[in-house]
């Protein structure tokens, strides 16, 4: 990931609803959620939600899959890993033991 892509991701996450959507899709895991379910869960109008989902998709933080007439959204774990790797690229000035607590905190316990 380069600076431009990282800035796109941070810009996408810098708005409250989009951050809530991203965190909700992380929680949903492999099952994902339909756009309507996301809107209902967060109490956001569907046209507003559609715009927010587009921004998150362009930032490579979420992906979607058409299912008949609806679209299911998922957190893009590769995009999230890329962003986290970008942040930690030069971690701890050659002393990886200093980064281990952060890595342990990020590790999924599921």
Automatic annotation (TrEMBL):
Signal peptide boundaries: none
The protein, known as: ArsR family transcriptional regulator
Alphabetical list of Gene3D superfamilies matching this protein: Winged helix-like DNA-binding domain superfamily/Winged helix DNA-binding domain
Domain called HTH arsR-type: residue spans: 1-95
PROSITE patterns linked to this entry: HTH_ARSR_2
Keywords per UniProt: DNA-binding, Transcription, Transcription regulation
This protein's record includes keyword Acetylation: no
UniProt key word Transcription regulation: yes
Pfam families linked to this entry: HTH_20
GO molecular function, one term: DNA-binding transcription factor activity
Taxon lineage: Bacteria, Pseudomonadati, Pseudomonadota, Alphaproteobacteria, Rhodobacterales
């Amino acid at each position: 990931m380069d600076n431009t892509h990282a800035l796109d991701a941070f810009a996408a996450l810098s708005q409250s609803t989009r951050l809530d959507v991203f965190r909700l899709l992380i929680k949903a895991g492999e099952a994902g959620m339909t756009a309507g379910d996301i809107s209902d869960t967060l109490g956001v109008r569907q046209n507003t939600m559609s715009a927010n989902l587009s921004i998150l998709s362009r930032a490579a933080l979420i992906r979607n899959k058409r299912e008949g007439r609806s679209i299911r959204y998922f957190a893009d774990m590769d995009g999230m890993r890329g962003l986290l790797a970008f942040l930690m690229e030069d971690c701890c000035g050659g002393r990886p033991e200093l980064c281990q607590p952060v890595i342990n905190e990020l590790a999924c316990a599921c």
